[in-house]
Design brief:
This protein folds into two domains: about 150 residues, Cobalamin-binding domain (Rossmann fold); about 280 residues, Alpha-Beta Horseshoe (pyruvate-formate lyase- activating enzyme). The protein is about 40% helix and about 15% strand.
Length: about 475
């Protein structure tokens, strides 16, 4: 069966990141089934689904699958509705990815989507396709949601995570035009030293239980072996001549010994690449040896998911962090000449203006080179989502899902005041005299800092959103 997989481009989409979820799904389909996948990434060149209609009809898919973030919800609705009216009536629509996992009921009730694959989707998707092809019931397929015969939403049991992720083949990069992503690379990390940059994922799952996090890959940390991970780097360097990788793990250094082994192998392999941790790294699991390995291996930028430096708020959100260790890591990495970035969140339930200002002051006085200050979003399926179910009412537009929106503000300050504090944080942080010097000293891409990072900061100050 032909399986078409689509990455939407939405009103709030702000990068041209390769569709990693679809690339992994496609590779898995090839290895464990006879289905033929095809990928259309509308985000790569910001094309319209209408531009691909002839191509889609010629491919004649039996299934059309979509992924997408919540900020691409309108695009998911439009694409499925548009195609439903133009393809064969027998085509089955399936949705997966972050938005559909969190808002499966919304997707099933407001689009032609028949099935939602929740969370880690490789195994569930293969089993579901088998049921569709053989015209069998999907009632026993774990990890999916669907509309029953009486139009009620049924959620099958969750699926256990894939135990050995070494069994998952490398992403099917041959299904996309990789060169497109080198023209103007703009990942969520926002900076890169080379245009020939691609993301890598060395592990799945995070054992920590922050109340605002959805944990798409579950709480069990599962890591690829150093051999498996290095083999992918070797492949990407030889096949696509990449000059930089961005490691996208949720908890790369959860296993410190494995993390060190990987970097020792990168150093001994003499790949001569630059490396960034755009998705963040555990700041309390870094020692002097790891900093030294990072420096020798070509790491130029590390992001930290600090969220809040205030002890009461950290306890409130179950953010298990030893701030003394985090501070020591930031200082050591800054001393090594590696650029650092801090992720902060404001607007936590019961958070006061005084506590928000304490966080801003901490960020300003820290050795971080750059930072961003997001506003808390409360999503279904998170601990906060369970605590505050009244926040699950329908969202009015894509921006409602944005981390610049006050849509789910449960702090002690008003929406208007929270936005002013967000702008104040950006201004105070970036116009701190020592910060400019630190950015110039630690960033290999000073032009990138000013053309991308400051463009986003100005967007926040002037327009209330960081879209670039």
């Amino acid at each position: 069966m032909n399986v078409l997989l689509i990455q939407p481009f939405g009103n709030e989409s702000n990068n041209n990141y390769p569709p990693m979820g679809l690339l992994y799904i496609s590779a898995y389909l090839r290895k464990y089934s006879q289905h033929i996948p095809k990928i259309i990434d509308l985000r790569a060149d910001r094309s319209r689904i209408e531009d691909h209609l002839d191509e889609i009809i010629q491919f004649n898919p039996g299934v059309i699958g979509l992924t997408g973030m919540s900020i691409e919800w309108s695009a998911i609705k439009y694409i499925t509705t548009y195609l439903k009216a133009r393809v064969n009536d027998n085509v089955v629509f399936i949705a997966g990815g972050p938005h559909s996992t969190i808002f499966s009921k919304m997707v099933l009730q407001h689009t032609p989507v028949k099935y939602v694959v929740r969370g880690e989707g490789e195994v569930s998707f293969v089993e579901l396709l088998k049921c569709i092809q053989e015209k069998q019931s999907a009632a026993d397929v774990k990890g999916i949601s669907y509309l029953s015969d009486n139009d009620t939403v049924r959620h099958n049991d969750n699926r256990d995570s894939i135990a050995d992720i070494n069994d998952i083949p490398f992403p099917a990069y041959d299904l996309i035009d990789v060169e497109k992503y080198f023209l103007n690379p703009h990942f969520h990390g926002n900076l890169n030293t080379s245009k020939r940059v691609l993301p890598l994922i060395s592990s799945r799952g995070c054992p920590f239980r922050c109340k605002f996090c959805h944990h798409s890959f579950g709480h069990k940390f599962r890591a690829r072996s150093a051999d498996n991970f290095i083999a992918e780097i070797d492949f990407l360097v030889k096949k696509y001549s990449i000059r930089e990788i961005q490691i996208e793990d949720d908890a790369f250094n959860m296993d410190i010994d494995r993390a060190k082994l990987i970097f020792k192998r990168i150093i001994s392999g003499k790949y001569d690449i630059k490396i960034a941790f755009a998705n963040g790294i555990r700041g309390d699991r870094i020692d002097d040896e790891m900093v030294d390995l990072f420096k020798k291996a070509g790491v130029y930028r590390i992001h930290f998911g600090i969220e809040t430096s205030v002890a009461r708020v950290r306890k409130l959100v179950d953010k298990e962090y030893d701030m003394n260790k985090v501070n020591a890591a930031i200082n050591a990495i800054n001393k090594a000449g590696i650029s650092t970035h801090g992720f902060f969140i404001i607007g936590f339930p019961t958070e006061s203006e005084e506590e928000i200002r304490m966080d801003i002051d901490y960020a300003v006085k820290s050795k971080l080179a750059t930072a961003n200050f997001s506003i808390l979003k409360i999503f279904p399926g998170t601990p906060f989502g369970d605590e505050y179910p009244d926040q699950h009412v329908p969202y009015s537009d894509d921006f409602s899902f944005s981390y610049d929106s006050t849509r789910t503000n449960l702090s002690l300050v008003s929406n208007d005041r929270l936005k002013k504090l967000q702008r104040h944080a950006a201004i105070k942080f970036y116009f701190y005299p020592k910060r400019i010097a630190r950015i110039i000293r630690t960033s290999p891409s000073v032009v990138g800092i000013f053309t991308k990072n400051f463009a986003m900061v100005l967007g926040l100050i002037l327009h209330g959103k960081t879209k670039y």
